[in-house]
Amino acid sequence: MPAIRESARVCEICGSPIETTSSGDLGCMVCLLDVGLDGGAEESDGAFAPVPDQLGTYTIEHHPDGSVWELGRGAMGVTYRAIDKVLDRPVALKIINTGLGSRSAEARERFMREVRAAAALRHPNVATVYQFGVREETGQFFYAMELVEGETIEERVRRLGPLDVSTTIDVALQVTAALAAAEERGLVHRDLKPGNLMLTSNLENTDARAVEALAAASAWQRVRRLTQPPLQRRERTAQRAVPTIKVIDFGVAKAIAEKTNAMALTHGAFVGTPAFASPEQFTSAPVDVRSDIYSLGATLWFLLTGHMLFGGRTVEEMRDARQSKSLPIEQLKIARVPRRFVALLVSMLAVEPAARPAGARELEARLLAIRRELAPSKALLRLAVGAGIVVATLLIVWGFYRKPTAPLLPEKSIAILPFTIIGEDKEDTYFADGIQDDVLTDLTKVPDLKVISRRSAAQYRDTRTSTREIGQALQVSHLLEGSVRKVAGGIHVTAQLIDTRDEKQTWAEKYDRDIADLFQIQSEISQAIVTRLKATLSPAARAAIEEKPTQDDEAYDLYLRARALVYAHDLGVSQKTIDENNRKAITLLDSAIARDPNFALAYCVLGEADLLLEESDKAKEAVEVALRISPNSAEAHLVHARYFLGVEDVSAAEKELTIAAAGLPGRADVFALRADVETRRGQWKQALHDREKASELDPQDLTTIQDLIFLNIELRNYVNAERLLDQTIAIAPQQSIWWLWIFKSYIALARGDAKAAMAALDYSPDRHRGFYNENHLLAHVFLMERNYSRAEEILQSAEEIAKKHNVLANVQEHNEAFLRGITLEKLGRIARFRGEQEKAKKYFEAARPLLEEWLAKNPGDHSWHGSHAPAYIAEIDAALGHKEDAIREGRRIAELWPFQRNALIASNIQVLLAVVYMWSGERDAALQQLMEVARVPVIPPSANMLPGFSAGELKLNPIWDDLRSDPRFDKIIAEAAKPVKLD
Q1: Are residues 756 and 777 in the same domain?
Q2: In terms of domains, do 429 and 294 share one?
Q3: CATH number reported for the structural domain that contains residue 952 in this entry
Q4: What is the DSSP string of 554-573?
Q5: Which of 100, 388, 638, 808 is the one with CA 20 to 30 A from 575?
């Protein structure tokens, strides 16, 4: 068979190469057979030898009319139905028509080596290959594989039209599972396309409605499975009777593509079907799983639209189209493909492999997130349309007796949306925001009201989202909307309360007052809402709501302007802008205080601005003044608690929060800060409760979600953490989710999967932006893979890379010596692992003075750095052989940071002390130390590159190699694998 040239013609229907001989085009063999071409095509193709009745132990079956039972035909060969006479089972027997028999013995050996690797792949979504062989008489190669009864997805789409989104995702997940299994074995399909995906279950005699019903049932079963506990999921697995996707021809394309003579199937490095091939398959570039991901993306495009992604009459035209043409997104819009699925397809079809999902596991995570976003409403709709009369009847009956199964919204719950400013002067937005925030603060003083935080409500400024959708997203039954218009000397305010469940207005009021009456308006709105929602307002809360913070209208206006600037840090702005805003705010607040020295709330916001600028002494001074003016101010006690947490005075922070919580029982910040205190105290059950409560009151704030996920990781609740991660990935802006993939890498390491951890880091939007911290974590993962060269390379260049990308500002200047010292210490570890003792000694000796320098410049520092710098010095002394100094210093730091002071810092100090014992030859002390730490949470690896203390990292990290031979170490790993016991 002649080689297929880049300019060879391609079938415009199925995308397969059109074979030619000296006599001219033969046409597309696949499509010709589909329209009923008699045996002429086979006769005219000299590449096909006469079909034998017997190949080894396989006998090819015949139809009743005597013709051979052909199952399919493509560019690589013809597949027949056959019987394995030895095992008495039906098989699919493929005879390869690529002239392999004429190849050299070396080429044939390469072929057999490759196909043996493919045959070793066993997976429910891969058609199992039983045997490869060669027909000695003709030199024809053949292989026998599992006979998959059914039709290809390509046939299904051409027969019944495109698939719906949910069914397509179902197909994608099954294929992705197959790719993941292949990726683990280093296999690449190279010819992934609709024609190589078999839809099992007997569908030949099934009409379109039945096929749709099966697909709908499949998706519905999976939606139910996702919402059930793990045990119930396992019990129901055996009950599923749904179509299954089988990938066929795995690894054969690569085997045929090996370098051979001029009679090979391919030209250069191209192999596969041009319409579905990745850009790199048209060149000599190497291919990996990302090439298959591209082909899967093109396949999914076909399933959704019925169109091939890029047409073309020749291979060359198809190759050029990938480089020059934009994706026809309009086709996906017509098919009603959701935005997030469109975004995923675009990334899968990126020209550059690095821009695609890094591996099958990451692709699977994104598909699952999209499917969860669609469930259950889409699944219910498909079920109702296609599942049959019985299910439809049940749905009708269910509709008579029950309301839709949307989660019940608490009656006494509300979100105050940003008030709209009416008029041309949009600079007055701060004024409208001030009214919104004051009403919100008033309502958080009511104990039995659920009030969504300002940060989450701010997401719906100028939104077109319906009231009902906002209510579901925030899980509240009521919304307060309003508008503000400033007129000469006066204001016009409107407010309306809306029930999100039926979108009806339940209360509304208009206020036309003098601007001096603003406080009275806010108080009236707040109390009207309390009355309407039948909440309980205590005398103290009523007094707090009615209290006027200042009699000076100008001072209040300056305060509102300043407060808007301080709160702007919640809106995702840069650190530089945050600092500038806070400095401007301080100037405005100074002016407000000059007008009214007894303006306690102005001092509170001044303290917050100082804390954000890390001016803790000034913050303390401001809040103490506020408390002298108003000793019972809940807002002042809340800021005071922030200050004490910053200086690690946990007891004082706890006392301040107790007072703040009494005055602001519905404030999300109170729960978040209380969780900080409880985490330091080691009160894990209360901390988890308060993190969840903060997330309930602030569901749209990524920092609040991040804290909850991080705590679940610390507590080793990886399933909960992953659930929250996937939910957040589905709703968060792409530019804001880099930390989600960092957390996914933490979880992968905790499970002992360094490959998945690396894939997660590769998928992070910040992976290639040169951030200092991310590079340190990347080096840590390479260390877990024992790729010492790459870990060393990254650590040595981390600072240079950060400077190159202009992101060194992320490394605070006053911590520079500390971070450089830690980097050198880690390089010393790597040299030690490699047995390079002199090199390790030089690194450790260079690291120690940098850490001492930092400690000298920051005496009495209570931060993370202040606690860990001396612990690292103790570890360095142990590495340098100064045993007594190392143990003495390690114990001293551990005594300074007991679990009662800060449980998380203490656990990390204890891990470093175990390293000190181990490197000092005190094996028993090291093991005893580790067993104690194994029962408590330990912070995951971060930029400081802690040793890592999850079960997975204990298995992977070479730092613990000295202990691996001791059976006690295995018990430590087993203990570290358990979820932390909540008190």
Answers
A1: no
A2: no
A3: 1.25.40
A4: HHHHHHHHHHHHHHGGGGT-
A5: 638
116 or 615: which leads in pLDDT = 615
Q: CA angle at residue 947 from 944 to 948, to 5 degrees?
A: 100
Q: Does residue 378 or residue 87 have the better pLDDT?
A: 87
Name the more confident of 488 and 531.
Answer: 531
pLDDT of res. 138: 66
* pLDDT at residue 405 in the model: 46
- The answer to whether position 116 is within a domain reads yes
The number of domains in the chain is 6
What is the average pLDDT value for the chain, to the nearest integer? 78
Residue 698 φ then ψ, to 5°: -135, 60
Among candidates 613, 623, 527, which has minimal Cα distance to 578?
613
Asked if 901 and 790 sit in the same domain, the reply is yes
* Residues 681/650, Cβ–Cβ less than 8 Å: yes
Residue 278 makes CB contacts below 8 A (sequence gap 6+) with 287, 290, 291, 292, 294, 295, 353
Please choose, from the candidates 514, 575, 523, the residue with its C-alpha nearest in 3D space to the C-alpha of residue 547: 523
Q: Tell me the residue ranges of DSSP E strands in 212-325.
A: 245-247
Pair 196, 298 in one domain: yes
DSSP assignment of 480-531 equals EEEEEEEETTEEEEEEEEEETTTTEEEEEEEEEEEGGGHHHHHHHHHHHHHH
Q: In angstroms, rounded to a whole number, what is the distance separating the alpha carbons of residues 842 and 825?
A: 10
CA distance 938 to 929: 13
Nearest to 786 by CA among 830, 823, 756, 824: 830
Residue, of 975 and 87, whose pLDDT is higher: 975
Residue 677 · residue 650 · CB < 8 Å? yes
User: Using an 8 Å Cβ cutoff, are 213 and 387 in contact?
Assistant: yes
N residues, the chain: 983
How far, in Å, CA of 286 to CA of 354, rounded? Answer: 13
Q: Same domain, yes or no, for 538 and 611?
A: no
Rounded (10°) angle between helices 718-731 and 738-750 = 160
User: Quick one: 493 and 507 in the same domain?
Assistant: yes
The CATH number of residue 198's host domain is: 1.10.510.10
Q: Do 368 and 426 belong together in one domain?
A: no
- Rounded CA gap, 831 and 876, in Å? 13
Coil, strand or helix at 430: helix
Domain span at residue 722 reads 716-768
Any domain includes 924: yes
Q: Cα–Cα distances in Å, from 964 out to 74, 338, 713, 927, 968?
A: 54, 50, 25, 11, 9
CA 389 to chain CA centroid, Å, is 40
Q: Cα–Cα distance between 452 and 730 in angstroms, integer?
A: 21
Contact 701, 457 (CB under 8 A): no
Alpha helix ranges (H) inside 596-717: 600-612, 616-629, 634-646, 650-663, 668-681, 684-697, 702-714
Is residue 759 assigned to a domain? yes
Structure tokens at 849: 């003075």
- What DSSP string runs through 109-130? HHHHHHHHHHHT---TTBPPEE
Q: Which of 740, 768, 796 is the last residue of a domain?
A: 768
**How far apart are alpha carbons 439 and 664 in whole angstroms?**
13
Residue 23 lies in a domain: no
> In Å, how far are 262, 282, 315, 472 from 319, measured between CA atoms?
22, 6, 6, 47
Q: Please say whether the dihedral angle defined by the alpha carbons of residues 142, 145, 149 and 151, taken in this order, is positive or negative.
A: negative
Are 956 and 752 in contact by the 8 Å Cβ rule? The answer is yes
Work out the angle at residue 36's Cα, subtended by the Cα atoms of residues 33 and 42, and round it to the nearest 5 degrees.
Answer: 45
Structure-model confidence comparison of residues 795 and 23, the more confident one: 795
Instruction: Read off the pTM.
Output: 0.62
Phi, psi of 175 (to 5 degrees): -65, -40
Question: Which neighbouring-strand residues pair with 479?
Answer: 415, 498
Q: Computed from CA positions of residues 170, 125, 200, 230, in that sequence, does the dihedral angle turn out positive or negative?
A: negative
pLDDT at site 961 = 94
Give bridge partners of residue 486 from the DSSP assignment.
491
One domain, residues 295 and 362: yes
